[in-house]
Amino acid sequence: MIRRVTAIYARLGGYLRPYWVWLAGGGLLALFVSAMDGAIAWLVKPAMDGIFIRRDLLMLKLLPLALLAVYVLKGLGRYAQSYLMAAVGERVIATIRRDLYRHIQRMPLAFFSDVHSAELTSRVIIDVNRLARLSSTVLVMALRQVGTIIALTAVMVSRDWVPTLFALFAFPFISVIVRAIGRRLYKINKRAQERGAQLVVLLQESFTGTKIVKAFGREAHEQERFDGLNQRLLHLSLKNVRADEITEPLMEIIGAVGIMAAIWYGGYRVINGETRIFNTVQQTTASVERVFEVMDMPPAIVDRPGVPALPGFARTIEFVGVSFRYADADADVLSDITLTVRKGEVVAFVGMSGAGKSTLMDLLPRFHDVTGGRILIDGHDLRDVTVGSLRAVIGIVTQENFLFNDTIRYNIGYGRPDAALPDIIQAARLAQAHEFIVATPDRYDTLVGERGVRLSGRGDVGSRRGERVPRAAGALRADTQPHRARDRAPALHGPSRRPDRGHPRGADSGGRTPRRAHRPRRDLPEALCPADGRCRLMTTPRRSLAHEKERR
User: Fold this and answer.
1) Under a CB-based contact definition with an 8 Å cutoff, are residues 9 and 282 in contact?
2) Does residue 432 sit within a domain?
C-alpha cells in the first residue's frame, strides 16, 4: 500500500512542479510561522519567572507587547502562506480536471457504454474536489507542522533535554496507531466514494426518467432504492467519523504518558497537528486513485503518428470486406461487408433492431475502428487520416436528438461555431423548424432547457418540437460538408407513417447520404438490409417493401 500511495503522490507532484516558486515561498512562510510558534513557547518561561515569581514590573510591560507582536506576525505569515498554498492547490485541481475531461473526450463510445455518465461526473466533480482539500489543506498543514515540530523541539531541548526525551518517547506508539487508523480510513472512504457515485447515478436516472417513473407508478420503488443507497452511505460516513475522531483522544492519552507538564504546550500541538495530516491524506488517497484510474485508460481511437488530414470528399465511399466485433462479444456484429457508393447517392440501411445498422454507421466517423477490412473515402483508408479531418466532413443527425441546455441558436450552430444568424435561420427552414422557433418568446435566443424540455408542445404527434433543432444543426453542418450521415428515429419512417417533414431535404443535393431506419421508405432509391452481420442490397422501393412484409 505504501508503494502505491507513494507512486500516486509522486505523480501528483508532477502537477505541482510548475508552481515550485510559489511552493518555495509557502515553505519559507511555513518556517516563519513555525518560528513564531517557537517564540511563543520560548516566552512562556520568562513570563512565569519574571512576572509571577520575581514580580518584575518591566517584564510585565514588555512581555504582553512582545506576545502581541509575535501573534500579529504569526497571523500575517499564516494568512500569506495559506493563500499561496491554496492558490497552488486550486490551480493544480483546475489542471487535473482539464486533463481528465480532455482524456474522457478522447475515449471510444464503448467506454461510455461501460461507465455511467453520472459515475464520470462524480469523478470529475466530487473526486477532483477532494484533491482540492488535499492540495490546499494538507500541504499547508504539513509544511507548518513539520516546522513547528522542529521549532518546539529546539525550544524544549534548550530548556531541558531530559524531559524532551520523555516527550519524544511517545512518538513510536503514536505512529503505529495512526498508521492502523489511516488504513481503515482509506478503505472506508473508497467504499463511501463508490456508494456516492452510485447515488449520483440513481438521482440522474430518476430525474431524467421522471415521466416513466410516474407513468408506471414506481415512485415508491425509486424511493426505496434511494433510501437503501442513502443508508449505506450514512453507515460508511459514520464509520469514517468514528475512525477519524478516535484518533485525537488516543493521541492525548498516549502523549500524557511521555509529556511532562513543563512541555505539554508544545507536545500537544505537535501530536494533534501531525495526526490530522495523516488522516486527511488517507481520506483523499482513494479520490486520487479514482481520478488517475480514468486518466490511465488508453483511448481506443487515436491518430497514427504523421498521418495527413483528409482533403475532402469528391467521389466514393467504399466498404471493403468490413467486419466488426465488440470487445466483449463472442461473434461479429458485421461480417465481410463490401459496398461502394458514389457522391450524390442516397442509400438507407433498413432492418430490425440489433441488425447492425447503427454499428455500421458508427464505423464511418470512426466512433469504432473496424476489426477486419477497410473503409475508404476517395481511396483514403479512414485509419490513415486524422480523426478530426474525417469528422469535419460528416454531418450527423442522431436518433437521440440530444440538446444542450442553451439557446436554440447555440444548438443549431454547435457544429459550426462561426455560422452567422442568416445561415442558422436557413438551416432551420430546411428542417422546417423556423416557424415554431419564431413563435418562442426569444426566438433563436430562447433557452431550450434540459434535454429540450422547454420546447415541448402538447399534442405534438408523439415527439417534441425540439427534435427538429438537431436536424437543423445537421443541415447547417451538411451545407458545407460533402457527406452526411443520419441515424433516424424509427417513429418517423415506414410506409404507414406521415412524411418526414422535419428532414432537411434541401441539404441532400450535393453529397452522399446514408440513413438508418427500422422500416423502408418509398422515396429512397436504395436500401441496404443488414441481417446476420451482412448487408443485402434492395435496389428498388418495391423490393424493399416486399422485404418489410416478409419480415412481418
Assistant:
1) no
2) yes
